[in-house]
Amino acid sequence: MIFKKVILFFLFLLWGLNYADDKDSRERYLHVSTNPSGADLYVGNAHPDFSRNPDYRIPAFVSVPLDKDQVLITLFRPDFRDTSINVTLSQKDTSFLIVALAPAFDETFLQEQQADLNHRSRRNLGHRLMIASIVPLAASAIAAGVAAYEIGKANDSKKSIENTVITSGDNYRQEQKNFEEYRDNAKTAKKTALVSLVAGGIILSVGLFLSF
């Protein structure tokens, strides 16, 4: 009887701990929309780098840990002033915020915004190129493996030819043919591996350069 009570106690304790963890890990949400719509939203930084992709696209539901009552957001939209707001959340699961963006007329400010957008486009292109470089680099690795395999087969054929006592007949000619085919295949695979490696390296280098 005592053993059963101990088991039940530990089961209840584990359930309580899991319940507490689930409760602590719950999140509230802040729904943000703007007028006009289509702004970028950055969370937790008063001076974010607008040349980087935003955390959210407006309209958006921003997830906020349950233990936080405030969240700092910054809104960015071309031709409008940047807006930073420290939002106090309600006790409900979801809070709602609508922000009217103020138009910007300062030509220097607008040029800086455009520069940030251009930089963001270059960064995104760089990231896409870095991902694309996986294809030629993988092809280079595969071609190198094929080249190694063909070289091994060519070496085996060469040894077989060198160890053959009878240097005539169909078997001898077939071994010579196999050796030539393996050798040619190895050369082709090596060239493919080199070209793919160079192409992948160039694409990766350009992607890294643009991503900064």
What does this structure look like?
The structure is a single chain. The protein is of the alpha+beta class and 212 residues long. It folds into two domains: 25-105, Immunoglobulin-like; 129-211. The protein has four helices and seven strands; from the N terminus they run αβββββββααα. It has a four-stranded antiparallel beta sheet with strand order 3-2-5-6, with no helix packed on it. A three-stranded mixed beta sheet has the order 4-1-7, with no helix packed on it. The chain is elongated and about 90 Å long.
Concise summary:
The protein is an alpha+beta fold and about 210 residues long.
Measured distance between first and last alpha carbons? 68 Å
- Estimate the strand proportion: 15-25%
- Give the tally of structural domains: 2
* Order of SSEs: HEEEEEEEHHH
Biggest β-sheet strands, sense, barrel: 4 strands, antiparallel
Low-confidence stretches: 3-10, 19-25
How much helix, percentage-wise, in residues?
A: 55-70%
Dominant shape: elongated
Total beta strands: 7
Give the helix/strand class: alpha+beta
**Strands across the major sheet, in which order?**
3-2-5-6
| Number of helices, counting only DSSP H or I runs of 4 residues or more | 4
Round the Cα radius of gyration to an integer and report it: 32 Å
Mean pLDDT: 87
Question: Which descriptors apply to this entry?
Answer:
212 residues, alpha+beta, Immunoglobulin-like, 2 domains, four-stranded antiparallel sheet, three-stranded mixed sheet, elongated
